[in-house]
Amino acid sequence: DQVEKGQFEHFMLKEIHEQPLTLRNTMLGRINDRDEVSFPELAPAAGAFKDVEKIFIVACGTAYHAGLVGGAMIEKLTRIPVQCDIASEFRYRDPIITDRTLVVVVSQSGETADTLAALHESRRRGAKVLAITNVPTSSIARDADFVIPTMAGPEIAVASTKAYTTQLLAFCLFSIYLAQEKRTLGQKLHAELVQGLKALPVQVEKVLENANEVKLFAESIKDADSLFFIGRGLDYAVALEGSLKLKEISYIHSEAYAAGELKHGTLALIEKDTPVIALVTHMELYEKTVSNIKEVKARGARVMGITVEGNVELLNAADEICFIPPSLQLLAPILAVVPLQLIAYYASLALGNDIDKPRNLAKSVTVE
Ligand code: G6P
């Protein structure tokens, strides 16, 4: 164990720190010198996605959260309508599938029973299935029509970290690939996206280097009864993942809320000193999220803001801030999730929990 963990106390921390490398590896060989995205694995399938009219993204847990961000990327770049489903729900709701439907299943292990069953059901109904998976020899990879492997390497900790960020990256690459086929992506945005992707590994390194602030915050929430994550748009999808991470390993109750929904119920739960983590990376929604921060502050909440470097103005609203480097909005989740992974890790460490093997949970759920 010690050898594999190297300098790190837990696999989870090691895997968090591997992300610059796993992002690099997932990009490798997939962006050519003309900055076009190509997947050698998909070469035999050239043109296979041209007629796709509707996309479902189906997964469980963290992979489902990656799908929420991935769906937004695909819609934004290709204008193909995307619907995200939890695998254990998908099969039972008689989804509308035609031969122009693409179902994207996402799975770190490639063995999750519900995701595999959703794949089989989708194929039975005539859809093409693309698997985004970290294990190219898995059942899901074997049974899908197409496979995009993520290059996260073995993920040992039950709480998924590097698999999630490589799934987001794979989705971004696939969105650009689809947009190239459908000619829906302008040159300028294409160039900015590729440049933004290439900058990510170094930017994640930067976030990891500046982890002290979030470490102190994490230690301070260890006795909290409850914690809330809020955000809008993609920040909401990242909030869901941050909340799941915290629950999985710290056992602190938490909820993620679309910031604009707070006043429809959750605001009633905010008391003096309730910790709230506010994700504020969508600058066009900045004012709206800040007004939500003010709502929770007025009820006594203690707010940690996660925002983009230079946005010091947020200090007028939040109590503490963690800055992430500036990037395109579609790429910000890959950066914004890193402090949330660290908050979950350090809160759990302060509580003395078994971080890599949390109670009641399994790395791979092969029963329905
Ligand atoms: C389990 C794991 C989670 C994971 C989920 C889906 O619940 O503990 O970390 O996100 O399964 O797993 P998959 O291998 O399909 O991504």
TrEMBL record:
Gene name of this polypeptide: glmS
Domain SIS: 45-184, 217-358
Protein name: Glutamine--fructose-6-phosphate aminotransferase [isomerizing]
Positions spanned in the full protein: 242 to 609 of 609
Domain of life according to the entry: Bacteria
E.C. number: 2.6.1.16
GO biological process: carbohydrate metabolic process; fructose 6-phosphate metabolic process; protein N-linked glycosylation; UDP-N-acetylglucosamine metabolic process
Record's GO cellular component terms: cytosol
Active site residues according to the UniProt entry: 363 (for fru-6p isomerization activity)
Keyword set includes tRNA-binding: no
GO molecular function terms noted in the UniProt entry: carbohydrate derivative binding; glutamine-fructose-6-phosphate transaminase (isomerizing) activity
Record field: catalytic activity: D-fructose 6-phosphate + L-glutamine = D-glucosamine 6-phosphate + L-glutamate
Keyword Transferase: yes
UniProt subunit comment: Homodimer.
Compartments it resides in: Cytoplasm
Record's function text: Catalyzes the first step in hexosamine metabolism, converting fructose-6P into glucosamine-6P using glutamine as a nitrogen source.
Keywords, alphabetical: Aminotransferase, Cytoplasm, Glutamine amidotransferase, Repeat, Transferase
